[in-house]
Amino acid sequence: MSEDDEQTMHPAVRGLKTVCRCNNIKYRTIERAIRGGAHTLTQVATHTTATTGQCGGSCTPDVQEMLAEHAPQRRLPAPAAGGATAGAWWVRQK
Question: pTM higher than 0.85, yes or no?
Fold first, then answer.
């Protein structure tokens, strides 16, 4: 199934798609785990056992795509101009 077909698929039908064949984990199970706070591949594996099957994780790319789609994106703070600020813990005070 192509990526375009998955995007146009009704959410209820897409939720029934098996992502991890080894452990029989459905799309909706992984989606619920992500929405419930599993925001890394390891956390998804812990919550669902997806990517931990006998095949060695052939579903890993699919789970990573799901993470990119459903997990909240965290932004790193922009570095201060000129590098580290004077109050940073790693800056040696004279």
Answer: no
